[in-house]
Specification:
By secondary structure, the protein is an alpha/beta fold. The chain folds into 2 domains: about 325 residues, Rossmann fold; about 100 residues, GMP Synthetase, Chain A, domain 3. Helices cover about 30% and strands about 25% of the residues. It contains 12 helices and 19 strands. The strands form 4 sheets. It has an 11-stranded mixed β-sheet, sandwiched between helices. Helix 7 links the parallel strand 3 and strand 4. The longest helix is centred in the N-terminal third of the chain and has 22 residues. About 35% of the residues are buried.
Length: about 425
């Protein structure tokens, strides 16, 4: 772990041309592997009459088109490399902000790389190995820390459940006294609001890392004011782990270009010019078990050739539009981040039988839950009853507090933006 972390850190300061040459070399290795070992990509190459030798840089990949979540959902088995024992791979499941459940696979070595890469920006921003590190996350992530990390306390986080009420989360943080606070952006925002309401000033981490949801400038200032420390944002997806991150200078988001290729494309899949908004596509340079090439993460951003004053040579991007769901405000005034509902859905007993979902708050005490079934092996009544019970238990709600009206449809239409937001509210209440 230490050797890998140091290697990743050295790459931050490589000359830009050396970084680009390395990226192109890794890309050529990846597309050759995908062509020779992954049926899904082999067919795409064949249909376009292309060979790996035709690929020199990411710009040569346009013929593959854009790989979307639905493509993965329809071709999971065909996207796993030949010769890889699926039973030995780690299964990654995500409901995501789009409400489209997705299953991917990585090897243990690939997962280790993801985790160490995630640490890199923490270290650059000043996170020390023995700092008290507290993460606001879902319970299934609590066991993700390796035994060695836990036993020697080396970059070993403590966790607070995203499902707990902000008041309970504040109490836990008072006990844990974090030096590094990490977690879902809006969850940390709600904690900041709770601290402000109760006049609590004892929780003073040295820095905060946020992610999963974008925050506006006003909300970020509120977090920094409440905790009296700087915060740094991370842009990531569960499928690819972290994609880009803020350094101390906060000029933009440094893209992890030594591990990923990030492209910004128009409706035709062609790369946009500097400063123009485009759909974000990612190509992983390390996921050999189940390659992701020109995969759309569902967000909009832009690239810039601006250089950061911090001295890091990783190129910069600007996230313009991301997972902007709405805060849910319950009848008792309690505010819940959309990510809380997304995590709850991810832990739902029958989640594997759900093809798509959307939660819409119509009134403070009434939330409509729309489901598209993946199969009919479990009846609608059982799915409905179990889900309502699960949501009440996960969110610590009394059955009389909120009505979850679950019904089933054949398809959930996209919004005007062309995206599907999984958790929304029709209540006009600023946070």
């Amino acid at each position: 772990m230490v050797y890998m972390l140091r290697s990743l850190q050295r790459r931050l300061y490589w000359p830009r041309q050396k970084l680009l040459d390395y990226q192109d070399r890794m890309l050529r290795l990846m597309v050759t592997h995908a062509y020779e070992n992954v049926p899904f990509y082999h067919k795409r190459f064949t249909d376009a009459a292309k060979k790996p030798s035709d690929i020199r840089t990411a710009s040569d990949l346009t013929f593959l088109g854009v790989i979307r979540k639905q493509d993965i959902r329809n071709n999971v088995e065909r996207m796993i490399a030949k010769g890889v024992e699926k039973g030995k791979l780690l299964r990654i499941e995500t409901s995501g902000s789009t409400g489209l459940p997705l299953t991917l696979y990585v090897s243990r070595d690939e997962d280790d790389f993801r985790k160490v890469k995630h640490l890199r920006d923490h270290v650059i921003c000043g996170h020390k190995a023995t700092d008290r590190w507290v993460v606001i996350s879902m319970p299934t992530r609590f066991q993700a820390v390796g035994l060695l990390q836990r036993s020697i306390g080396f970059y070993s986080p403590r966790f607070v459940s995203v499902f707990e009420d902000p008041a309970k989360q504040v109490s836990r943080l008072e006990e844990l006294k974090p030096e590094i606070l990490d977690g879902y952006s809006t969850s940390i925002l709600l904690i900041a609001k709770e601290m402000e309401k109760r006049g609590i000033t004892a929780i003073r981490p040295r820095m905060i890392f946020t992610g999963a949801e974008l925050l506006d400038a006003h909300s970020r200032k509120k977090i920094e004011r409440s905790f009296d420390c700087p915060s740094y944002d991370q842009y990531a997806t569960i499928e690819l782990e972290r994609i880009a991150w803020q350094c101390l200078a906060k000029t933009g988001y440094h893209m992890d270009s030594d591990a990923l290729i990030v492209q910004f494309v128009d409706k035709e899949g062609e790369e946009v010019a500097k400063g123009e908004s485009g759909e974000i596509l990612c190509t992983s340079l390390f996921n050999y078990s189940m390659p992701l090439i020109r995969y759309s993460v569902g967000d909009i951003g832009s690239w810039t050739d601006e250089r950061c004053s911090c001295g890091i040579n990783l190129p910069l991007m600007k996230v313009l539009e991301g997972r902007r769901d709405s805060i849910i405000i319950l009848p008792d005034g309690r505010m819940l981040s959309p990510i809380t509902f997304i995590c709850a859905m991810d832990l739902y007993k029958f989640f594997g039988h759900i093809d798509q979902f959307k939660l819409i708050q119509k009134r403070p005490d009434y939330i409509e839950v729309v489901l598209v079934r993946k199969d009919d092996s479990i009846g609608e009544k059982a799915l409905q009853t179990e889900l309502v019970s699960h949501l009440n238990k996960s969110l610590e709600l009394d059955v009389s507090e909120v009505t979850f009206d679950v019904h089933f449809v054949d398809k959930i239409p996209l919004e005007a933006s062309g995206k599907l937001t999984s958790v929304t509210t029709e209540l006009k209440r600023p946070i």
